[in-house]
Design goal:
6% of the residues lie in helices and 63% in strands. By secondary structure, it is mostly beta strands. Among the domains are: 87 residues, no CATH class; 149 residues, lipopolysaccharide transport protein A fold, CATH 2.60.450.10. Strand 14 and strand 15 form a beta hairpin. The chain is rod-shaped and about 135 Å long.
Length: 503
């Protein structure tokens, strides 16, 4: 008995001496603040057994548990059951088992671990937490809940000072409006900024967003995506170098190498900048934009300074594409230049405004406004309003001309077969007998006229109405100044070519 008592007293004295040395060297001892039962058994090991309402303290850190082994000599704790660790104004940490080193201030918590900073809650099965640097990390899978966001990752790190979380491997975030899968994610609980640092998919009912870098502020609902970014909808896809989206206002922006693909309308739009307004269904594209649309199995190319794509959901889902300034269009059976243009997706009509010029086959058509109508076979007819003028250059370089206030041209397989002129009709037409011989020239002036043209581009019949005045001249006697109607301008050099769109 005396020997055991001596050894016990000697052990206590040694621990006290070591504690004094630690304090004098600047190290902080773990303190026992309370326990229902304290047992020391040297034969079992150099530790004290604490049972019932156990509480420890080290500086500003408090730790509660059901029971613990307190290795006072080496400043270490092994704790069991209902572990609760808290640091002032920093965090709360719960678990079922704890290994804590008072020298390194490293806590290893396991079994139903929960960590919270007052707003965010992290749960995992094993967490290491550095009390000095205030950094916790897990490698066995963890779930973080912050408001409506629930996030899982295989590995994660929590920086308590900066309120920042770093997630890695199999990152998945669930929200009532979307889900997100990512390789790497960083999230700040104060700024509410989530940063994507690897391949990321964000899926909602409306679309799927992909990027390899980006960020989303869950407080302001503003997001940015870049590095291979695209948005994939049910029937459309948007690709760009980077994108911004303002969820609260419904405004989206795309920057650099923009590519919009609509599989329903079979149209692709390219540009350098795009802006989308979700509420008004309006899309603006600038930066040398070009549109390529499939029409009747052929490609229709369009260029302008600015595109404006408008979907009017209040008017039977009507959708139009507006092109402004320096409009240039190319299709195998139709080419055009104008100041502005409107393409109606509903009925495929194309309207050209402000000094438009259209070319079909060997014909040049001008007017203040020109509207083109199409059917399943291609060009059906076009209307040239105010100062309508049709010029056709024949194989020998002579110009057949038709002019009037309004001109309606009707087509068969891309070729004009009938022209109707209403108001101040004028015509100069060279009547060919064969490929090189002419019978003469028709010079006509009347209120209205209807001209029928055969498959060889020859006039088959002409009907003159409203006080017609017609003169037929032999070719050699046709005066030079009469060979050009007023306003004649042959602008073939302006005619768009396909290679100019592809290069």
């Amino acid at each position: 008995m005396l020997r055991a008592a001596f050894l016990y007293l000697f052990g206590i004295a040694s621990i006290a001496a070591l504690a004094q040395t630690q304090v004098s060297s600047g190290q902080t001892k773990i303190e026992i603040l309370s326990t229902d039962e304290l047992v020391y058994n040297q034969e079992r090991g150099r530790y004290q057994i604490c049972r019932g309402s156990v509480r420890f303290k080290q500086d500003e850190m408090l730790m509660d548990c059901d029971s613990a082994y307190f290795y006072e000599e080496v400043n270490r704790i092994e704790a069991f059951g209902k572990i609760y660790i808290r640091q002032k104004d920093t965090l709360d940490l719960w678990g079922g088992y704890l290994e804590y080193d008072g020298e390194t201030r490293l806590a290893k918590v396991s079994k139903d671990v929960k960590l919270s900073d007052g707003k965010m809650v992290l749960t995992t099965q094993q967490l290491n937490y550095d009390m000095v640097d205030k950094v916790g990390y897990y490698t066995t899978g963890g779930t973080t809940v912050n408001g409506e966001d629930t996030l899982y990752s295989q590995r994660g790190t929590y920086f308590s000072r900066s309120k920042e979380l770093f997630f890695k491997d199999s990152v998945k975030l669930s929200n009532p409006e979307y889900t997100m899968d990512s390789d790497t994610l960083k999230y700040n609980t104060v700024s509410k900024l989530a940063t994507f640092l690897g391949p990321t998919y964000i899926r909602s009912e409306e679309n799927t967003i992909y990027c390899q870098y980006g960020w989303y502020n869950t407080g302001t609902n503003i997001s940015q995506f870049s590095k291979g970014a695209y948005i994939q909808g049910e029937s459309n896809k948007l690709i760009a170098d980077s994108m911004m989206y303002y969820r609260n206002t419904g405004l989206g922006e795309a920057f650099g190498n923009l590519k919009m693909i609509d599989t329903v309308e079979q149209i692709t739009i390219l540009g350098q900048y795009g802006k989308y307004e979700r509420l008004s269904k309006l899309t603006l594209i600038t930066g040398e934009p070009m549109a390529i649309k499939n029409i009747d199995g052929d490609s229709f190319y369009l260029k302008a300074d600015t595109f404006l794509d408008i979907a009017d959901t209040t008017n039977n889902q009507k959708r139009v594409l507006n092109a402004y300034r320096k409009v240039r269009a190319y299709k195998s059976d139709l080419q055009a230049v104008a100041d502005s243009m409107v393409y109606n997706f509903t009925d495929s009509t194309i309207s050209f405004y402000t000094d438009p010029i259209l070319w079909t086959d060997s014909n040049q058509i001008t007017g203040d406004t020109i509207v083109v109508f199409r059917n399943q076979d291609g060009l059906e007819h076009l209307e040239a309003y105010k100062n309508g003028f049709v010029i056709e250059k024949d194989p020998n370089g002579l110009f057949n001309q038709i002019k009037g206030k309004r001109i309606d041209a009707y087509f068969t397989k891309g070729r004009i077969n009938r022209v109707e002129v209403d108001g101040n009709g004028q015509s100069v037409y060279y009547a060919r007998e064969d490929s090189t011989q002419y019978s003469g020239v028709n010079d006509v002036l009347c209120g209205r006229m209807v001209i029928h043209i055969d498959t060889t581009n020859r006039i088959s019949t002409i009907v003159f109405k409203n006080k017609p005045k017609a003169t037929f001249y032999p070719l050699e006697k046709f005066l030079g100044d009469k060979s050009r109607l007023p306003g004649f301008k042959w602008k073939d050099k302006m005619r768009p070519k396909k290679f100019s769109f592809l290069n």
